[in-house]
Amino acid sequence: MMFKPQPQMQTDEPFEMTAMVDVVFILLTFFIISASMFGAEHDVAMRYRTSTLTQGLAQGDLPPSVVITLRNIDKQMVGITLGQRELLPNDYSAITQTLEQINLPQLPVVVQSQGDVLIAEVSKAVDAVLASPMNKVSLAKSPLAVGAVEGE
């Protein structure tokens, strides 16, 4: 059985790309609309950064809260302790910087005051926490007595 060669189809009309371009734009529009737009752009607008220090941590690896302790050193100086870290006296910007490094908005922050710390100093600490990515802030009075030392 021999096959006869087919005659070449010849058309006088050129190949129209209009329909194919329409299909491509419809598909492109579909994928753009259905894509999630809440990636890095949304985070940048909210001043939220992904911390490299906390990636890969499980919820059990984290403490129940971040504790900031304020205590009077003298009439003009307030000592600040964030967790186990002692910050410079009256350096409320260090609170914001340290919490930005931690960058775990779901972790609550507790601001404790020991002794007779003025409410103005406590509010400065709360303002420093609110300037960080942390979302939950609580206030507490330290259980230690005014003259007590933590090691005793």
Question: Helices, strands, pairings?
Answer:
Layout: H1 18-34, H2 40-45, E1 66-72, E2 78-82, E3 85-87, H3 92-102, E4 109-114, H4 119-130, E5 137-141
Parallel strand pairs: 1-4, 4-5
Antiparallel strand pairs: 1-2, 2-3
CATH topology of the domain at 59-141: Nucleotidyltransferase, domain 5
Sheet with most strands: 5 strands, mixed
The proportion of strand residues reads 15-25%
CATH architectural category of the domain at 59-141? 2-Layer Sandwich
The CATH class of the domain at 59-141, by name, is Alpha Beta
How many separate helices? 4
Alpha-carbon distance between the two ends = 106 Å
> What overall form do the CA principal axes indicate?
rod-shaped
Run of helices and strands? HHEEEHEHE
Helicity, as a percent range:
25-40%
- What is the β-strand count? 5
Task: Assign the structural class, choosing from mainly alpha, mainly beta, alpha/beta, alpha+beta, or little secondary structure.
Answer: alpha/beta
On the 0 to 100 scale, the average pLDDT is: 76
